[in-house]
Specification:
23% helix, elongated, mainly alpha
């Protein structure tokens, strides 16, 4: 007996409804893929206007300089507070006295760069490469130095108060004293010079 209380769908109507659902799902997947591709590209792109402004005025606060090639540039005393320099190439550049407070410097290349007297307080340097960099008198207070590479760099009179050095590679840094390292923290993966120890960061530290 047919239940008159329920609508009877033909095979054709059922097929159309199923086909419509598949088309909607396919369109949604395509739109999501396009969004992710666009987001990825925009995350890697830098603003040429921002680069030109920095080179001309040495001022570019909160600028987008991600992945830009600024190698071997004269950027002394530049104002780069809260700037985005993720993956930026700064190898061999002169950043002496630069203000990089709060800057995003993840995976940036600072190999052989001169950062003497620069202010990097609160900067995010996770994964940055500072091999053979001059960090004399640099302020790294409360900076995030997780997995940073400091091989051969000079930390003479550098300030490390509140810095998180978890997994940082510091085994062959120059002019590092125990009293400096006592101001910050790290973890079991932090590589330190012989005779230097570090207290562990709280579990909540990032």
């Amino acid at each position: 007996m047919i239940d008159l209380g329920k609508p009877i769908l033909s095979k054709n109507a059922s097929h159309q409804r199923y086909g419509g659902s598949r088309r909607c799902a396919l369109i949604g997947t395509i739109l999501l893929a396009l969004f992710l591709i666009t987001s990825h590209r925009s995350a890697e792109a830098f603003s040429q206007k921002a680069v030109d402004m920095l080179l001309e005025t040495r001022k570019c606060m909160r600028c987008d300089l991600r992945t830009a090639d600024l190698s071997r540039k004269d950027l002394r005393s530049s104002k780069l507070m809260d700037a985005y320099l993720i993956g930026t190439k700064l190898a061999g550049s002169n950043l002496a006295g630069a203000d990089l407070r709060g800057a995003f410097l993840l995976r940036a290349n600072f190999r052989r760069a001169n950062l003497e007297g620069a202010n990097l307080r609160g900067a995010r340097l996770l994964g940055a490469d500072l091999t053979n960099a001059n960090l004399r008198k640099v302020d790294l207070g409360r900076a995030q130095l997780g997995s940073v590479i400091l091989t051969g760099s000079s930390l003479r009179e550098a300030k490390l108060s509140g810095a998180n050095m978890s997994a940082a590679i510091m085994g062959s840094v120059c002019h590092l004293k125990q009293e400096q390292i006592n101001e910050g923290c790290g973890n079991a993966a932090t590589v330190l010079p012989p005779g230097i120890s570090i207290r562990h960061c709280p579990h909540s530290a990032k």
